[in-house]
Amino acid sequence: MNGQQFIFMGDQASGYNREILQMSLWPLALSILIFLGVSGALFYTVNRFREDRHDAAPQQFHGNNRLEVVLVLVPVVIVLGLSVLAVRSLVRLNTASAQALSVEAVGRQFWWQFSYPTSKVAGGVVTNGNEMVMPTKQRVSVTTSSLDVVHGFWAPNIGGQRASIPGSNKTWEVDTDRQAVYQGNCSQLCGASHSNMRYKVIALDQDRWTAFINAATAYTAPTPEPGSAAERGYTLFTQGKASTGAVACSACHRVQGTSAGGQSGPDLSFFGTRRTLGAGMWEAMTPRQWEETEVQPHSPLKFSPAAALHAWIKHSPVVKPGSLMPRYDGGEYKINGKVQKGGLLTDAEIDDIAAYLRTLKLPEEADYWRGIP
Ligand code: CUA
């Protein structure tokens, strides 16, 4: 996706990054001045006092109190000045603004859960996996933590990296003026799929943001049409298949407005609206691409979105090292070093579940991906 702009030092559409740049210009300018002064003095001295220009020994003296005082005071004043600037920026960046929107970002091995604590719905709050939607031109107060190991929240375009630490909440404010999709990464080595722990930040102008959050709050997953593949998928999703040991998806996944209330996997309420899969292993699953069957050359996994989703449901730990999702092809996988045996679903049953997942869509006007460069 576009929207990755690194101009000099950080994306200047973000007030956070602008503050950092303004603060950094002073040490940079002073460094250049001092470098020019010191190297100028050096070149002058070397040239002016070359041996072949002086027969006599240079003037001999010892100690110069005034010069020594100046040489101590100048750096002290510079360092004090710079620390005042740094403290001022720290205070500005860490002062909570009254109008900030709260978002919680919880890191898990190996995905992110984003939730909106002020948008209450039955059984919780509005939550999405791996795609963080935020408004533009408004500060967003991110609180990050982790439920397993230390992760790192880092979406450079909106400003500010923080460690996501189990049992700790770190809150700071990010922002951007530009409506775009930005890349986020886990910035702390956290296990086998650290590099597959990516997310998208989708910044929407206020009217579109409002449309999204209102629709997300009012959202109830659509009831599948009787007799459709999606309906069969819904039954498997919520009940599993006891005869072959296939655990119900709803044991781990939540779908807003249904009985599926699992908390240990990503919230799938808006799965059909998302354009990433497997915490950013796939990107840009546009409706057109869903119909394609050929290879996506830029995809880390070399097949179409439909085939990717099928493979994902069938044997997630095979396509993503360290994934804690069970296998549904009967194969073995490990959770915390313990070997588990997956349940068994047929390819047709897996496609039914995929069909159900693709119906989980926000209304068109709330589709946060629509038309964003
Ligand atoms: Cu989570 Cu690296």
Automatic annotation (TrEMBL):
Belongs to the cytochrome c oxidase subunit 2 family. This is Cytochrome c oxidase subunit 2. It is a multi-pass membrane protein. Binds a copper A center. It catalyses: 4 Fe(II)-[cytochrome c] + O2 + 8 H(+)(in) = 4 Fe(III)-[cytochrome c] + 2 H2O + 4 H(+)(out). Residues 1-97 form the Cytochrome oxidase subunit II transmembrane region profile domain. Residues 98-215 form the Cytochrome oxidase subunit II copper A binding domain. Subunits I and II form the functional core of the enzyme complex. Electrons originating in cytochrome c are transferred via heme a and Cu(A) to the binuclear center formed by heme a3 and Cu(B). It comes from the Bacteria. One of its GO terms (molecular function) is oxidoreductase activity. One of its GO terms (biological process) is ATP synthesis coupled electron transport. Keywords: Copper, Electron transport, Heme, Iron, Membrane, Metal-binding, Oxidoreductase, Respiratory chain, Translocase, Transmembrane, Transmembrane helix, Transport.
